[in-house]
Amino acid sequence: MTDATLAVHGLTHDFGDRRALDGVTFEVRPGRLTGFVGANGAGKTTTMRAIVGVMRPDAGDVTFGGAAMTLEVRRRIGYMPEERGLYPKMKVAEQLVYLARVLGVGKAEAVARAEALLDALDLTERRDDLLHTLSLGNQQRVQVAAALIHEPDLLILDEPFSGLDPIAMDAMAARLRERAEAGVPVLFSSHQLDLVERLCDDLVLIHQGRVVASGDARALREQRAGRRYRVEVGGIDAWRPALAGMTVVGSGPQGTLVDLDGSADPQALLAAAQAAGPVEHFSRTVPSLTELFAEVVR
Ligand SMILES: Nc1ncnc2c1ncn2[C@@H]1O[C@H](COP(=O)(O)OP(=O)(O)OP(=O)(O)O)[C@@H](O)[C@H]1O
Asked: Does the C-beta of 41 come closer than 6 Å to ligand 1?
């Protein structure tokens, strides 16, 4: 695979008089796990549906490795739609083999892949059960297996982690990481920001149909790290400095969080802390994804 980047450019779409997507532009790079984050109704599902071609946006385009999304390219996508959509009355293993066959995988290979995925997702015992008799979390695991069965070149997953227990989440995360390491661009949406923060190399943050931040997850958080400090003064539970240009945004057992405006001097904060007592901790902090999200959405 050469440059297997998924590029989404200028996607715009109205549903009636409601603008669902407003110039959505971002990239999903090969070998990277990219988290797609946004509030309910922000436009994640609509964007994913436009990428895989199940809906046609009013404007904008999508390319993969620089080429248009032809039918041929679309067959190489592993897509897990929000509305799911497997066959409830078909046996689990049979269903996976069937899907692989439809996507052009040979019989023996399809059987081998289905068995390997069922094993990896801890579903071997349920292989001969009808899908609808499985718990929702286990049905979800089968959905993931279905998206992976043809070893796709691109993975687009709408909330793959919702409803999974912690063990299934780890198994799923490991599968996605494995595919990313094989050079596949992976885009998945989630409302579980702690999980996205832990897993993702890249982020796309969408708000009201517009991408408000995208790129390397660590870099995005660090860009906003410049002016927030955490200070712990020994023996004082809730030290609160009263200095010009500084705002206390939180205090507790982990110390006091202080935002400094552009003109405030961190050394003045340190001096004030030292005057109050022994300084046990003084550092710039990197905001969590939850804080970053709240900030960019604001
Ligand atoms: N088929 C449709 N008809 C009309 N409006 C729609 C349709 N699909 C989506 N929308 C609207 O488009 C906007 C974006 O919806 P979308 O489902 O893409 O958001 P989302 O980010 O996936 O939300 P969630 O996190 O709740 O799944 C919302 O305002 C939604 O109501």
From this structure: yes
